[in-house]
Each structure stands twice: as C-alpha cells, then as structure tokens.
Amino acid sequence: MLKVIKPRSFYTSEARWLGLHGVVLGNGVCGEVWEGWEGEELVSWPLPHSVSGWDLLALEIVRLLQTCPLDSSTDVLVARVTGSIRLVTQLVKSDWSLAAELHHITSQAFSMVQRFAALPRPPTTLLASCVSCLAVMATNNTAETWLTLGQTGFLPYLSSSLPPSHDNLECLSVAPGNYGQLLKMAECPEGGYPVTMAMLDLLATTCLPGNSVVLREQLATVIYIMREVFLSCHKWKFKLRSGRRQLELGLLRFCHDTLQRHRDSPFSLGVVVATQLLSCPGEQGLLPLLSLPVSTLNSLHSAALGTSSVSPAVESVRLSLSILNLLLHAPPTQQSSLLEWNLANTYPHIVSNIASYIYHYGDSRIPIGATAVLTRLCQATPLSVFSCLGTDAVVKRDVFISRLSSRVEEEELKRGVLGLLTEAVSLQPALAELFLSVQSSSSQGQVKYSLGDSSCLHAVMKIVSSPSSPPLLPPSLHLLRSLWHGRRDAVLHALRGIPSFWKNVTTPLSDPPSFSSHKPSKRSGLPMDLFSESSPEELTNQMMAACHVMHIVAMEMYYVIQDKLDDGLQSILKDFVSKDGIKNWNECLLYPAKDVSQSSTAVLQAQHQLVIGWKTFLMVATSNQPALFGFTSPSSHPSPSHPSPPTHIITDIVCAIESQLAAPVSMPTVAMATELSLLMMVLIKKWKSNLPGSEVGDLIGQFSHMMSHVVRLDSTQASSLCLHLYTSAHLLLSLSHANKVSVETRFLLGLVPFLSHTLRCHHDNSKGPSHRPDIQAMCLLSEMVGGVSDWSPWLLAFRNESLIPLLIQSVDERLKMQTDEALIEAILGVFVAMASSQPAAEALLVSGLLQVLSLPLASCLDNKLNPAPLTSKLPGTPVLKPHPPTTWSSVWQLSLRVAGLMCHTLSHLSLPSLLDLVGTHQLRITQGLDVMVAITSLSSLETTTSSLFFLCQLLRHRRQLCFSLPSFHDTALSAALSLLAAVATILCRRATLKHIVKTMHAAGLLPSNYCPPPTKRGCGKEGKEDIWTTGCGLNSALARLQSGLLSTLLSCIAIVQHFSPSLSDIVTATTQLDRDEYPCLFLPAVTPPTVDQTTPPSLGALTTCLSIGLELMRKVDPHQRVSGTPNKSKSPAKTPSSSKSPSKSPRPLTPAERQRQREAVAVMERSAVLCVGQSLCALASHAHSTHDLQLMSKELANELSTFCHSLLLILNRRNTSSASSQTPPTSYQEAWSGKAGLAFLETREQVVFRVTDSFSKQLLSFH
C-alpha cells in the first residue's frame, strides 16, 4: 500500500477543456498495489468525491484528442478509450435514460471521428466503436446525429445536384469523404472492416419505422456503400474466412430492410438500393450468392443443427431470395433491368438453381422464398421459366406437386406453390402445360380430355373438396379462376368431367360471410347460426373464396351458350336463386363497412375484391342468363312492401353504398362504394325498361343521402364515385321523364348543393368528358331543370348555393383561358334548359350571361375556329377546305341556341344585350350562312342551323335590328336568300348529295357509324336508288345531311317570312301591299335555283321548295302507288275525287317517317305562303315590266297547278274528299275570305292545297 505525502493533480488541462475540476490526490490518500496483466505493478487510487468515474472516462477521451500524433506509445490510451466507448455504447443501448447523463462522453465521438479518420494510419477499432456509439444515439435522434456527423467530413457527400428522376442516378457524383479514404487506405489493405460494419449498423437506423425523412447525407452514404462496398467486396481480401460472410450478411440485411420500408418517393433509400441492385453486372450483386447448389446448402444446414446459430451461407441465400423477390415485385421502372436481362440470357442456370431449392427441407423459408422468386420471374421477366428448368423439369414438377399434396408441409409453402401455378397459367404457357398435364383421347370422332396422373389439379381439387383447409381454398380457387380467364378449353373440359365438380367449387356461394355484431333482419332471411364469431383471417379467406367462385361462375355463364350450360351448374344456380341467394349476398355487403373498418387492412381488401366479384357476377347474370335468375319480367303489381326484383336489388345496392360511405374514410371503403356505384349504374342501364315508374322517384330520393357522405371525401377519392352516381341519377331521371312520372321536387332540390360542390372541387381536364364528374353533374342538372314548371323553389335553391353566378363564372374563366370546352358545352346545355322559362331566363340575364357570350366567347372562338381557305370544287360549285369539327363548334352552336331562346322568352327585355352580342359576332354569324361553309361537315351544318335559329328569333324585332345594325340586317337577309336557293338546289340533286357525303368521308369528317350511300346494284327494279329512305338510317351520314339541310331550308324560309306578308296580311289586305314594308325579295321569274351566291334568287327557288316537300310527302305516304302523269291543261280542282280504287289498310309510319312527314308539310306550307306573298309583292312592284310580270304569272301558275295536282293525288290516296266536297273558289278575293271555307281545322296538307290552288287560278285570271 502506498500513501500520498505531497498532493498531486492529474488531467488538469483536460479538465479545463471539459469545464471540470482536475483530479487531485490529497495528503494521506492511500493507494493499493495490484499486479497487472503482464506482471507489472499497478496502483489503484481512490477518486475524490468531486470526480465521478464517467468524468474520468471523459478526461481520458480528451487526453487522447490532445495527443498528436498517435504512435506506439499511445496504443494503451487508445485501447482504454476504445473500451470506454464500447462500455458507454452498451449502457445506452440497454437503457436510453442514461443518454442524457453520458452526453458529455457520447458527444466526444464526433470529435474523435473528425480527428482520427483523416490520419494516414487511423485507429480503425477506435473509429468503429465511435461509429457504433453514434448508431445507438441515432436510433432516437436520427436527423441530428446524421447532420452532425456529416459536418465532420467523415461521411460521403453529393458533389452534384439531384437529377430530376431516379433513372439518372448513375450520373450522380458522390465524393468519398474521410470514410472512403479510410476504406481504401486502411481497411482494404489490412483485410479487416470494422468501420464498414459499424457504418452498416449506422445505416440500419435509417430503416427503423418512423424515419421517413431521407437526408442528403444518408442518400450519399447509401449510394457510396452500394457502389464501392456491395459491388466490390467480392474482390477484397479478408483476414478471417468468416469476415467475408459477415460483411455479406450485413450488406444483405441492410438492403433487405431498406427495400421493405423505404419505397414511398422517387429518391427514397429503397428506390436507390433497388436501382443499384437492378443495374449491377451479373458477376456482382445477388446472382453469385444464389448460385450455391442445394446439396451444399443441405450440408451446411445439417452441420449447423448442433449449434444455436444459423449458417451464414444459408442465411445469405435466404436473404438473397427475399431481396430478389422484393426487386421483382415492384421495380422502380417499367423497363426491363439489367438483372432481369442477365437472368433471361446470361445466367438461366441460376433460375434452375433457385427452383432446385424446393429440395431443401431443413429451413422452410428457403423453398418459400424460391417459390416466390419463381412467381415473380413469371410476371416480371421476358423469359421462359420452363426452358430454364432444363432436363430436371419433370422431377422438379413432381417435387412441387408432392409438397403441395403433403399434409405436413407448411401452408405458406403451399400458398406459394399455388401462386406459382396461377401465374404460370396466366403468363407461362409451357410451364403451365408441364403442371396441368392434360391428356386427350378420341372415340367415335369426338375428342375427350382428362387429367393426367401427374397433374397438379388433382391436389388442387382435393383442397377444394376438403373442408379442413380453408386458408388454402382461396389460392386454389384463384388457380381455377385463371384457367377460365385464360380460356384453357382442354383443361376446362377435363374439369367439368370430374364428378361433383360444380358442387365442390360453388360451396362458398351458399355460405355468406358472417359478422358477430349484426343480427339478421327479418327481410334478409339469413339463418341465425351464420352470425357466429369469426376471426379476421377466417373472414378474409371466406370472402376471397366467394370472390373467386363468383368470377368462375360469371365467366362460365359468359362463354358458354345459355342452352349448353352444365346441368349441374344450372341446378345449383336455380337452388341459389330459390334460397334468395342474391338478396342475402346483397345484404351481406352492408355489414363489413361497419364492423370490420377498425380491423386489419387485409379484411377490407378482401371485401373490396368480393364487391368486384359480386359486380361481375350480377352484370353477367343480367346480360347472359336473365331467365335463370328471374330478371326477365318485372313484378306485375309492385308495391313498397313487394317491390319488383330489379328495384329490390338496386335498393340493396344503394343501401350498401350508403353503408360503405358512412364508415370511417379509407381507401378500401371508398373503392368498394365506387365499385357498387358502377354496378348500380350498369343495372339501371340494363333494367331501365323493367323498373316501374312509381319506384324511380324513391330511388332518386336516396341519392341525396349518398352524396351527403361523398362530400367528405377529397376530389381524388370521390371522382369515380360521383361520376357513377350522377350517371345513375341521370338515367333514372330520364326514365321518369320518358314514363311521364313526376319526381318530387324536394328529391331533386336535395341534389343541387352536391352538384354545386362537384363543380367547385372536381376539375381534371386530363380525362375524357364521359369520365369527368363535373361534366356529368352538369348533364344531370340539365335533365333536372328541363321540365320545371314552378321555378320559385329552384331559383331559391340556386340562390342559396350561388349556382347561377358559379356557372357563368366557370364559363367566363374557361373562355378566357381558352380551355376545357367540354365543361363549357355541358354548362351551356344547362342554360339551354333554363332559357325556355321566363323566371330562369331573367335570372340568367341579370347575372350577365349574354355579356360573357359576347367578348370572351368572341376572343376565344377567333383562336379556335378560324375559317378554312378555298381549295376545291363540287360539280359546278366551289367549296371550302374541310375543317375538322371540334367541341368549340358545339360551344358556338349552344351559345346561339341560348341567345335565341332568351330572345324568344324575354322579348324586348333582352334586346340591348342581344344587339351587343350580334355586334360582336356578326362576322361569324354571316360566315355561318354561307352554303360552302355549311356543307363542309355535319358540324358546320349544325352551326348554320343554330345561326338561322338565332336570326329567326332576333328578326322578331326587325325594326330595332335594322336601326341598330343596318349593315348586318341587310347582309343577313341577303345571305338567307342565297342559302335558301342553294339548299333547295342541293336537295334536288342526288349526285350532289352523294358527292358531299363522299367528300366528308374522304376528309375524315364523318362519325364512326357512317354507312356509305347505296349503289345501283342494290336498288330497285328501275336501278334508281331512293335517297330519302333507302340506306338512310337515323345514324347514317346521308340521313343526317338531308335532315340538316331540311332544317336549314325551313329556317331560311322562316327568316324570309319576316320580310314578306303573312297569310293574315294577304287575306285582310284591301289595297296593294306596302312596298317599303314588304319589298320584293325574289326575281319575278321561275328559273331553277343555283348554288352561285352572285345570282339573285327567283321565285323558282320557292317552287323548288314545294317540289321538295311534295317529294318528301310522296316517299313517306303509306298509301303510295304508281300514278299517271298529271294533266297540266286542266285545273286540278276539276279532277273527280270520287274515283277511288280499293286499297289495303295503310301500314303504320315509323317515327322517322312521321318526322319526315311533318317536315314535308312544314316545307310546303311555309313555301306556299311565301310564294303567294312574294308573288303579290312582285305584282305590286313598279320595278318590273308588264311583260315580265305576265310571263312570271304564266310560269308560276303552271308550276303551282302541277304541284296542286300532285298533292291532290296524295290526298285522294288517303281517301279524303275535302278537295271535291266543296266548290273551289272562283276568285282570288273569295279564296282568302272566311267564306271560302279555308277551315284551319282541316289537315295542313288540305290547307296548302286550297291556298295554292286558289292562287294559281288567280294568276291564270291575271294572265
């Protein structure tokens, strides 16, 4: 024992560094002598009370930091400090509460790393202990530890900016830092890698749950480790043989943990690791680790059985298989990677070696991982797995099937084998044939198929028919489903021949999922014992099995003809229907959203798949087997207590949607509601003829309840859901209007807030118009307001939601941005429906709709709809270059339609705004009246019709228009006259009509359902085709062209009638007509009309219109028969009407023929009145010579007499005697007096005949 005589101080400078008192040994302190490790004598002195043992360790660290340089004399100090750091690391690791107390020690680790890592001969053991200490500290303080360590210069760092995509990571430059220098200069030459192993421990902290933020320091370190360590360690030297395996295991564990947790962003650690692994050469990375033969693997595993540790080689193979599975499951890019190319081309033997791991029975994780990798290889790589198996393919197949059939194998391995078989059936034909092993035999000319002895389907059917393996039932049924999906007819024939096949397969359909907290309703009919306690795993298996069965049965019903459906399946489905299976399954869809929403995600995902299967099952059942399921006829007397089957099913689906939406918001519940809404939409389309009108209103009333839950979702989640709901409501509302069933206003008004919310929140221009909820919402709103009679509650609801200003603002914003024309078109459709009502039109006018349709629309259309130049010619006429129709053309058409309806509804109230609109668009309106522009395309023709409609309404205020815009007034009149003559000319020429259609077809301006005009070979006996009826379906381009030209002709006549005396003016006129009020618009001649706009039209254009109407009337006349040539020398009034020939009862007219008949009568009626009025104006005019007027009277009288004779023949064929039962008037004045008997109660054709016949006689008397 030694005693201190003179006080001594230790660690004085070090204590000042730390702000502590030095270690002072006072007088009388005794020290005990100890014998050291090497025989030397050591003295143990007691520490003073002012200094703790932790302070002494900190002082030792500071002394080491102050020592420079390090040499052999400091090895003892380095060893003491290394031991101290390791001690502190273990203490903090076991008890984190000590971290604050030992902070003055752990913080020195940064200083030691910064000081010693840059030395020429760094102390690697000390640095490894410091990095390990920092790894422990980073578990609870990740960001601060990495940032501070990065400031020391130890870590690698990025020397370039991040690329825009992870595909360019190879171009990213990473500086090695002090760690890189230490690795190259110290660890690699020595063959020991303690610092690298410690760095892997530090990187493992970034893989902990909750570390979602990836720093630049972490990213650079991972890239450097993957490039310089993972891809190069196979070339390094190692002191110990186990060192290589330990480093490989450390790298594999880091890669495995990183791939599992960090795949959420383009530059996450998982994506970086995956990119590096997928792009590494074949001789590096994972492939050499997977080349270990299975025999060696079995030997290493057997050798390690007596120990408590696992062989590093076995663990490396297991981790490599898991990593390869993760890489192939979700690669960062869709392109084929270098790893996949190497597996397919350079190293196919590795695939065979992976498949041979099925022989390994020691560790089940290895064959499970190998099976998973083979499954991914079937999906991800363009290789034939069968060709990679080599000559041992049959032997390996037998091992796979034997392990699948075994009763002692783990279920996870069996599920993996079933998954491999499923993917092989879908994507690997040769491998599928190997496992399916179907045999064929022919007898009596028929080929029969059966399963071979080595077929995997024997084991699969054993699982399906056995009730003792419910976890394996879903993957087994999934394999069978893939057979139907891939149309493996030979296998399906073999399966159908198995006794009780359909009975075993459809067993899950008879057992709906049960949920303990629900009791069955009285209506459901579900037995009480079904509602027993079920675990989430059982529910998942039960729902997935039912889902696969529904898909199998649906595909069987879809592909097999109805009469040839298997008898066993038919009896099962009939029993399913008789036991209310559809109703039970519909109601079961209500429960999981309320009871399983808080349980595992797997249950919700399984329920989502079940909903998809049920949707497919019902859709196919209603389309292909309606009679089998009782969907062919509705209930004869539906009532609220006994609704019709379609209404019952749709009501259950609506309740299921409400139940899903009422649950806590999650992706599975929203997805399920979306699928159910799609099913509801499809069923409504299918059953719209079977839904009773009395129940449609109740269904519409439930949509507001569903939408109240939808508004809680964001736009991404609710987009498809809103689309399906709005489409379904639109279908139901259209059905109610077609059946003339009124829907309660409160139901429709309840949807207004949700429509407004959809318009505000859902904007996605990338989708098509039919897939956008905002456009479908506007279509529904247009249907809702179409038949409104009382606008008071509607305007109040619109005012509460500010809907009208919102609609106008939406149109204004998009017109200024010149985009989203589909939504503008949908909103204008709403305005068209509203403009027909006085209160709604006033609201639109006050909100400034016409101002939006003026300058904003004009500036937008100037950029979107420019006129095309003049390039080619029709026979004898020029034509403009075809301009492709766009949606902006529809916007312009609807704008004109809205303006015209507001002019008609509001009259003088809207006139100032309308005149401003006309002044803005006058050039475009007059350009639309050019016949060359009108016949460019069907869309241009519709634009012309809309322009004429607007002009016709505007000319009701002709005096104000003439005063405000005189040039436009005159130009519009001249254009309408030229257009009338040109259209009449085109309608009379068959060749011109056909040439126009062919020109449109050649330019690609016709719709897809265009059918070419008929040729002479397919015509009647005379070889002349009927251009009005033959080959002109409602959807053909020729019929659309003729109908559009007829509408244009009628509109032109209506416009010209504003400048011509009406029938009442002509009848009541006592003197000559006012020439200023009614000018002469046509030349007093009966010359054929032309398309040339420079030639002024004559009265021959009007007689041509009469001939067109007569031709239309003759073609659609059900009493049509061959008649003789009319005698022009006699008055048609003298033709005896009593000469009737017996005729058969007329056939009923089709809707198209009735429409054509109405158009014919309208053309004849308006043309006759206009012809009479303009003839009187010509006769009253002094601008023409008497000779011209007499010649005009003669020619016009002949034309009108011919017309009357032909019309009288048609009337006689209808067995009408109105033309002969009364004496024709003898004078013109008598013809237009009330005494003449022009009773307007007669048919319009008879009125036309009397007017024309009387006037023709008057002209003859004038002549």
Compact overview of the structure:
The chain is mainly α and 1263 residues long. It is 61% helix and 3% strand. The longest helix is centred in the last third of the chain and has 30 residues, at 1151-1180.
Keywords summarizing the entry:
single chain, two-stranded antiparallel sheet, 11 strands, 3-stranded antiparallel sheet, 61% helix, mainly alpha, 1263 residues, 60 helices
Unreliable spans are: 516-532, 634-642, 867-883, 1013-1035, 1121-1143, 1216-1242
Class inferred from helices and paired strands: mainly alpha
Task: Supply Rg.
Answer: 45 Å
Give a count of the beta strands, DSSP E runs of length 2 or more: 11
Estimated helix fraction: 55-70%
- Sheet with the most strands: spatial strand order: 1-4-5
The N- to C-terminal Cα distance equals: 160 Å
Overall geometry: elongated
Report the biggest beta sheet as strand number plus sense, adding barrel if it closes.
Answer: 3 strands, antiparallel
Mean pLDDT figure = 79
- What proportion of the residues form beta strands (DSSP E)? under 5%
What is the tally of helical segments? 60
GO molecular function, one term: structural constituent of nuclear pore
Keywords: mRNA transport, Nuclear pore complex, Nucleus, Protein transport, Translocation, Transport
Main location: nucleus
Subcellular location: Nucleus, Nuclear pore complex
